[in-house]
Structures are given as C-alpha cells and as structure tokens.
Design goal:
The protein is an all-alpha fold. It is 76% helix and 0% strand. The longest helix has 36 residues, at 105-140. The protein is globular. It starts with a helix and ends in a 7-residue tail after the last helix.
Length: 271
C-alpha cells in the first residue's frame, strides 16, 4: 500500500497544483451550476405555490430545497475529467508513452480523479454544504442526522467509483472512434436526467422510476441525496447502497474487458 501511494499520490498532488494555478477557470464553471441551481429553486417555488397541497410526490418545498442543493453539491463533489483526459491522451498520441511507463494506466487515472474530488470537496462542497446547513438550522431548526450523514458518505464514495468507471468507459471510446466529444456530451445530458440531478426520480411514472432505480445513473446523485434527506432509511437504504456496490463491481469488470480490447487495437491519431 505504501508503495502504491508513493507511486501515484504525486499525480493527485499534480492535479491540485494545476488547480491552484488555474482556479479562476474552475470557479467560472461552477457559476454555471450555481445559476442552474437558482433556476431550479425558482421553478420548484412556482410549482409548489400553484399546488393544491403542501406535498408533491412525498416532497415538501423545504424537502425540495434540500434536494436541489444536495443533488447539485453531490454531482459537483464526485465530478472528474477522466473521460476528457483519456480522449486527449489518445488523440495526442501520449497514450503510447503512458502505456510503456511502469505504472498502471487505470490506477493512474483513478488518482487523477481523486485529485479532482479533493478539489471539489475542499474548495466547493464543504463551504457550500456548511452554508446550507446553517440556513437549514435557522430556517427549519434542523441539523444533519449523524447516522444518515455517515451512510451518505458511504453512498457518495460508491457514487464516485461508479462515475469514475462510466467516465473511463466513455474515454475509451476514443480508441474506437475519431470524434468522441459527441458521445461524452450525450452521456452528460442523459446522466443529468436519469441520475436525478435535474428532477427527483420519484416524479417519473412508476415504470420509468423502477427502471431508473436499477440503472447505475441513479446511484450517482439520487441515492446519496435521498439518504441524506432521510427519504431512504433502514432496509430500503441498504438495498439501494447494495445496488450501488453491485454496479461498481459490474462496471469495473466491463471496464477491464474493454480496456484490454482497446489496447490491442490502439491506433495513434496524432503526435
């Protein structure tokens, strides 16, 4: 383990150092997500104001504020750029040099992703989550339940692994097609909807909801957010965490198989 950390932690530190040099770009990107969050809150305010009751699909307006904030923060926390990194490596030709280095390419990209997550946690999630927690305490007299918070952390760790493998798989598309950016943008659009980032999955028809719950995308945002809000508890919570764990194992296996195929047919597109 010590040897592993000594080998790969410098790559994580390099990501953090790169952020410190170009952090203005990071915050400009985050402003876009914050604007989306404000728009969503306004839309839900309008919906609840015109509703006949105080509850919609099991959500009060205070619940919805918590959902929008925590789903946004969760999606930002687990975000990584692995898919873009792999696509750039393949198209520039630097993938060949990476493959002959005495490092495991998948582990290398995982530690790059850890750098992204550390940045998101330190400079984004903790300050904004702290602000939301203070607001929730003064507005509703509520503080996060410690046990739910621990299960939320466990669920987010699985979410981060699921997203890492999904992004790694989409990055591998660069081995098979010359223009991978369209695939990645399509993936981002699908994930925003099916992960519950834009709207809680509970608002979908029962059949679609049942299908979404067993897809890996639901484990990215919807599951940890519902755990944090206390909507998933007891056996129901453990069941959804188990689904997340199952997808981590499945995606890890699929990633390994496609990685082996991709390396065999490696074609350097440039550089």
């Amino acid at each position: 383990m010590n040897r592993l950390l000594r080998t790969y932690l410098p790559f994580t530190k390099g990501v953090v150092q790169g952020f410190m040099a170009y952090r203005a770009n990071f915050y400009v990107y985050i402003l876009g997500d914050m604007f989306q969050t404000v728009v969503l809150l306004y839309i839900w305010f309008a919906i609840f104001s015109s509703a006949s009751g105080n509850t919609i699909q099991g959500f009060t307006f205070d619940d919805m504020i918590g959902y929008v904030v925590m789903s946004t923060l969760t999606s930002l926390l687990i975000a990584n750029d692995v898919h873009w990194d792999i696509a750039q490596d393949v198209q520039s030709g630097s993938i060949a040099m990476n493959l002959i280095k005495p490092v495991n390419y998948q582990v290398l990209k995982f530690f790059f992703a850890l750098g992204n997550i550390f940045i998101n946690l330190t400079f984004l999630f903790l300050p904004l989550w702290g602000g939301y927690t203070i607001y929730d305490y003064f507005a509703n007299g509520a503080l996060p339940d410690l046990s739910m918070l621990l299960f939320y952390i466990a669920s987010v760790c699985l979410s981060a692994l699921i997203l890492f493998y999904i992004n790694f798989l989409f990055g591998l598309a660069a081995f098979f097609v010359e223009y991978v950016f369209g695939f990645i943008f399509a993936k981002e659009a699908i994930m925003r909807l099916s992960s519950g980032q834009l709207i809680p999955l509970a608002f979908f028809p029962a059949g679609i909801l049942a299908a979404f719950k067993f897809m890996p995308f639901a484990g990215l945002v919807y599951t940890p957010t519902m755990i944090y809000l206390g909507k998933y508890a007891g056996d129901d919570m453990l069941f959804h965490i188990a689904i997340q764990g199952t997808w981590v194992l499945l995606l890890a296996g699929v990633t390994q198989m496609i990685w082996l195929r991709a390396v065999k047919r490696l074609t350097i597109l440039g550089g």
